[in-house]
Write a structure and sequence with these properties.
The structure is a single chain. By secondary structure, this protein is α+β, with helices and mostly antiparallel strands. It has two domains: 143 residues, no CATH class; 112 residues, Beta Barrel (OB fold (Dihydrolipoamide Acetyltransferase, E2P)), CATH 2.40.50.1020. 53% of the residues lie in helices and 20% in strands. Strand 4 and strand 5 form a beta hairpin. The longest helix is centred in the middle third of the chain and has 44 residues.
Length: 265
């Protein structure tokens, strides 16, 4: 399972969760009043209890989202879903505590908790899903724009004497490998793989590659993620990037660079 997209880790999406979730909860309960909640919350005191419950949800979401933003977590989409469910469980504990104390229920606390979680989950699954899908769509369009920008840009390769040797569109470059005092630039020309040997170093090409979307995957390799089909691990545990061009060797990917490359893919 791939690492979660960067958009899920930024502060603005966390702020949207803090605002949207409690507002949706309050509006949904006011408009639809589902699950006989009016009688459950005490009839004429429905508005008061609902306002307090919405504030409880707000505080719980703020705490959970700030933890998610500041903790150095590396999670995939499955773990992110579990985090969202955990947020609802966390909020349910305090919602249930308020209901149990304020409404003087004869039921055991955990019976009230079960009811609270059931209500919260059935209501909050909608805004969580909408926010999650919105971020995925935004990430998809951002990647498409990045690929488009990269495709239109040109990479100018200079030798160690700063003489211009070759100009290629960024999307044509497959990968770059180092060999002693030279680098091998593998690229597509009329759907055929070509190789240009340039007297230069990988260090001299760092800024050029990073500016045009190529990713360092090994001490001696830069790879174009747009041409990576899949990352595979052999029997010895070594990871290789398989490219979409025929008759090319598989590019080694070291542990140091694996996370960043897999995140982009």
């Amino acid at each position: 399972m791939s690492q979660i997209a960067k958009i899920f880790r930024r502060f603005v999406p966390q702020l949207l969760h803090m605002i949207v979730l409690p507002i949706f909860f309050f509006a949904f309960m006011i408009i639809y009043r589902p699950f006989t909640t009016v009688s459950y919350l005490g009839g004429e005191w429905f508005g008061v209890h609902l306002t307090i419950l919405s504030c409880i949800v707000l505080v719980c979401v703020i705490i959970a989202r700030l933890l998610y933003y500041f903790l150095p977590l590396k999670i995939n989409y499955t773990l992110y879903v579990l985090w969202c469910v955990s947020e609802m469980i966390f909020a349910s504990f305090f919602v249930a505590l308020y209901l149990w104390l304020a409404l003087h229920r004869d039921s055991a606390y955990f019976d009230v908790f079960a009811v609270s979680f059931n209500y919260l989950f059935m209501i909050m699954v909608f805004p969580y899903s909408i926010l999650g899908l919105s971020m995925r769509i935004y990430e998809y369009h951002s990647k498409s724009e990045d690929v488009s920008d990269m495709s239109a840009s040109r990479m100018r390769f200079y030798d160690e004497k700063h003489n211009l040797k070759i100009v290629l569109t960024a999307d044509a470059v497959l990968y770059i490998s180092a060999e002693e005092n030279y680098v091998n630039i593998f690229y597509l020309e009329n759907s055929r793989v070509r190789n240009y040997v340039l007297r230069s170093s990988m260090k001299a090409l760092d800024e050029l590659c990073q500016d045009h979307g190529l990713i360092r995957c090994h001490r001696s390799y830069y790879v174009n993620p747009a041409h990576v089909k899949v990352l595979r691990k052999d029997k010895e545990g070594v990871v290789y990037a398989e490219l979409d061009a025929n008759d090319l060797m598989h590019i080694p990917v070291t542990k140091r660079y694996y996370d960043r490359l897999s995140e982009i893919l």
